[in-house]
């Protein structure tokens, strides 16, 4: 897929190339030329743009996920089991 | 455990490092181990809960992890950070339980996700509308469900890397796989998660 802009041919990747490079692109590890091609492609391909956006959101939701609290009795049950070995070895 | 014992601070006013606590445990100071437990019990529980997707099993895995850590801490050689070493134990304990459970197939795969009803009220006020708060809670439940349904290899990597925020290098050490393998599993795991969450995104 090629796209002309201001009279200069700018190479963009196609959908299958994007699939090959998306892991590196998401991690900001794609070579700069490929990165430019991907960005251009995303400006013209709605389905790929949606794919990348939802993938980024998935990652973001994982990253902002906070820790669950310990269940009410988990701490006491852990100490109960540890108590025996710690006092024995003290 | 002797509650009366207190930790001697290395530098007054500064917390003792994990490594210093490990050295003290290796010299027989069990109070130092209690401090390590306090620092990491919640993290270890979270790794176990996310891998196992079951609260009771995660509590048991939490206990097994620290019992094993105490037994093997004399062999800790400071080649990695203490938490990397501890998370490795927690991950192995949890994955072993998961495999055993799968082999037995006695636990329902449709076990409900942990109840998060109280969670919304524990969160600080973020200026969310009730509807936004509801959506966030729902998404959190869906995320836990989706993580729980990932294949084992992807699940551990996604939990450690994206949810717990460890680096590729740390995950590589914890799972004893190469960094390219971490990256590959992470990407596949992320794609699988996206598939499961896409209608909520």
Which short descriptors sum up this protein?
heterodimer; A: 90 residues; mainly alpha; two-stranded antiparallel ribbon; 4 helices; 2 strands; rod-shaped; B: 201 residues; Rna Polymerase Sigma Factor, Chain: A; Arc Repressor Mutant, subunit A; 2 domains; 9 helices; globular; disordered N terminus
What is the element layout, followed by pairings?
The complex is a heterodimer of chains A (90) and B (201).
Chain A: E1 2-5, E2 8-11, H1 15-26, H2 32-44, H3 46-64, H4 74-89
Antiparallel strand pairs in A: 1-2
Chain B: H1 18-26, H2 30-52, H3 55-72, H4 82-104, H5 119-122, H6 130-148, H7 152-163, H8 168-175, H9 179-197
Fold and architecture overview:
The complex is a heterodimer of chains A (90) and B (201). Helix content of chain A is 67%, strand content 9%. With 90 residues, chain A is mainly alpha-helical. Chain A has one domain (2-89). Chain A has a two-stranded antiparallel ribbon. The model of chain A is unreliable at 1-7 (pLDDT under 50). Chain B has 201 residues and is an all-alpha fold. In chain B, helix 1 (18-26) packs across helix 2 and helix 8 packs across helix 9 (179-197). The model of chain B is unreliable at 1-5 and 106-125 (pLDDT under 50). The A-B interface holds A 22-23, 26-27, 53-55, 57-59, 61-63, 65, 67-71, 73-75, 77-79, 81-83, 85-87, 89-90 and B 1-2, 28, 30, 33-34, 37, 41-43, 45-46, 49, 55, 59, 62-63, 66-67, 70, 114, 122, 139-140, 143, 158, 162-163, 165, 183-184, 187, 190-191, 193-194, 197-198, 201.
Kindly report the CATH topology of the largest domain in chain B.
Rna Polymerase Sigma Factor, Chain: A
| Radius of gyration of CA atoms of chain A, rounded to a whole number | 25 Å
Overall pLDDT confidence of chain A:
86
Question: How many E-type strands of chain B?
Answer: 0
Please provide the ordered H/E string of secondary-structure elements of chain B.
HHHHHHHHH
CATH architecture of the largest domain in chain B: Orthogonal Bundle
Percent of residues in β-strands of chain A: 5-15%
List low-confidence stretches of chain B.
1-5, 106-125
In terms of DSSP E residues, the strand content of chain B is under 5%
End-to-end gap of chain A: 72 Å
How many structurally independent domains of chain A?
A: 1
Tell me the series of helices and strands of chain A, N- to C-terminal. EEHHHH
The average pLDDT score of chain B comes to 85
